[in-house]
Amino acid sequence: MQRVLVVAQNTFRETVRDKILYNLVFFALLLIGASVLLGTLTIGEQSRIINDVGLAAINLVGVIMAIFVGIGLVSKEIERRTIYTILARPITRTQFVLGKYCGLVFICGLNIAIMFAMFLSTIWLSGNSIFGSLFQAVELMWVEVLLVTALAMFFSTFSSPTLSAIMTLGFYVIGHLTGDLMAIAEKSKNPATESIMTALYYVCPNLEWLNVKGQAAMGVPVSGDYQIAATTYGLLYAGLLLLGACRIFERRDF
Amino acid sequence: MDAIVIDHLTKTHRPTWPWQQPATVLRDVSMSVGQGEIFGFLGPNGAGKTTTMKIVLGLMRPTSGSVQLLGRPIHDVEIHKTIGYLPESPYFYDYLTAEEFLGFYGRLGGVSNTDLHQRISALLERVGLTEARCRPLRKFSKGMLQRIGLAQALIHDPELVILDEPMSGLDPVGRKDVRDIILSLRDQGKTVFFSTHIISDVEMICDRVGILAKGRMLAVGRIEDLVSRHVTQSVEVVCEGVEANSIPLIKDAAIRVLQRGSRCWMSLPGQQRLEDVLAAIRQAGGRLVSVIPHKGTLEELFLEQTNQGV
């Protein structure tokens, strides 16, 4: 555990010193700009607009960070050959992968927490009420980021950074369209299309389960059971991906 | 117990695509490195030195054969507590300062926080980087990176130090410093296994050497033994007042003869026919100027072995 933490701490430091958290400035400008502009253009809907923009921005920035930092973390170590000196230490490859993951998850969590705090401040300063459902939505976004980070790490253990980025983005997009995949499968008269769509439905994570932004922005909460079930689903999926990443990484030659 | 035992190691890279051929980079390599010795691993570029080291460190899996480090199999990661490693042309985390960098590797190696500060100070002084303690690695020169790399290999006080081309890219002063560090490690009872293609470095500090070419181990042993066993010990004879080419015995015995006026220089392949040649010179009325036995060098051995290997 100690070794996982040492790698995680270094990953956190690396990401901070790579100035990744500068995205927060972009987020703040986007949030404040959109709130002021859209707030003046819409009458009576200001609260919903701020909530919509805020949640969407947190989600977008969080996922982009998870994908692009996630795919670079392991592949950069291999490309720059820093992995040689790490694995020459008493650390297993699984501990290394978990350490990298934990470090990134921590920085993504911190990023989301800061963005959420800025978002809540904006709501408060604009004189609107803060809904409990916003906390639910952000918690599920955090789970989504955990899952997407695991996806990025999984692909980066066996493919190039570009291919990893394409595959992770592809899974992310399909993950939000899984309901449509099933609908296409049901309506399709071609057995091949039906099989492919059904396979994609079962293989790709159903990220829509983790998306409650729409109703949260209007202050409509989801049930506790749904929250727990969706969180468990996301964490289990991320766990399976990490298990796969560790297995692949264990077998690699450097 | 030997520090490293490599037993019939073979590594074949599987092709990525079916139409590609598999590439065998190591073929039945066997050798051992005794505890407390400095072992030089010599070979031309592409010989398989780095691959051997990667297998020894568990970074790569052998196709066949086995490796033991300090009596334990390489898949046991706990053995890495006793190993320090410096890769070839290392690239390190350039966002870390020298102190943070050594702290990171020290903690990974299991050094306690109380010992770490003291170890970092001592090592930075030893590699001459005390002044750069708080400087980020991105501001280091190549020589400084090599030194800090050496320091990270030693931060956890390992018993066995594996260095891949530790002198490459260093100026003469830097190379001497690295040689001195390697020698001081032996004085502390550590084992040093390092690869290089700079023969003079090996000749100066190694107890034993291994020569690898095209993935095959061509020779392993003490430098003196290998040189005397493999390289021809020639004798250089210089005399005056004779026309060497007119003496059949000299023409027959010498490998090369150079005549400059009355002075003659000849090279004999060994000492077997030296007495006959000297007698022939005296008989022809010549005067002996010098007889110099020429000792074979590691470079000659290296070239001879690698040419045969290729």
Low-pLDDT residue spans of chain A: none
Assign a percent range to the helix content of chain A.
over 70%
- Span of the ends, CA to CA of chain B: 33 Å
Task: Look at the helices and sheets of chain A and give the structural class.
Answer: mainly alpha
Oligomer: heterodimer
Gross morphology of chain A: globular
Helices of chain A, by number, come to: 11
Structural class of the helices, strands and pairings of chain B?
alpha/beta
Average pLDDT confidence of chain B is: 87
Name the chain pair whose interface involves the most residues: A-B, 24 and 34 residues
Radius of gyration of chain B: 25 Å
Biggest sheet strand line-up of chain B: 6-7-8-3-9-10
| Helical stretch tally of chain B | 10
Q: What portion of the residues of chain B fall into strands of 2 or more residues?
A: 25-35%
Mean pLDDT of chain A: 86
Beta-strand percentage range of chain A: under 5%
Residue ranges of chain B: pLDDT <50 for 5 or more in a row?
none
Strand count, sense and closure of the main sheet of chain A?
Answer: none
Task: Identify the overall geometry of chain B.
Answer: elongated
Q: Helix and strand string of chain B, N-terminal first?
A: EEEHEEEHHHEHEHEEHEHEEHEH
Can you describe what's shown?
The complex is a heterodimer of chains A (254) and B (310). With 254 residues, chain A is mainly α. Chain A is 80% helix and 0% strand. Chain A has 11 helices and no strands. Chain A has helices spanning 2-17, 23-41, 46-79, 82-87, 93-125, 132-156, 161-175, 178-187, 191-203, 213-217, 224-251. Chain A is globular and about 60 Å long. Chain B is an alpha/beta fold. Helix content of chain B is 34%, strand content 28%. Chain B is built from 10 helices and 14 strands. Chain B has helices spanning 49-56, 98-108, 113-126, 142-154, 172-187, 199-205, 223-230, 248-253, 274-283, 298-309; strands at residues 4-13, 23-33, 38-42, 64-69, 72-73, 83-86, 160-164, 191-196, 208-213, 216-222, 235-240, 256-260, 263-268, 287-293. In chain B, strand 7 (160-164), helix 5 and strand 8 (191-196) form a beta-alpha-beta unit. In chain B, helix 2 (98-108) packs across helix 3 (113-126). The longest helix of chain B is centred in the middle third of the chain and has 16 residues, at 172-187. The mean pLDDT of chain B is 87. At the A-B interface, helix 1 and helix 4 of A face strand 6, helix 2 and helix 4 of B.
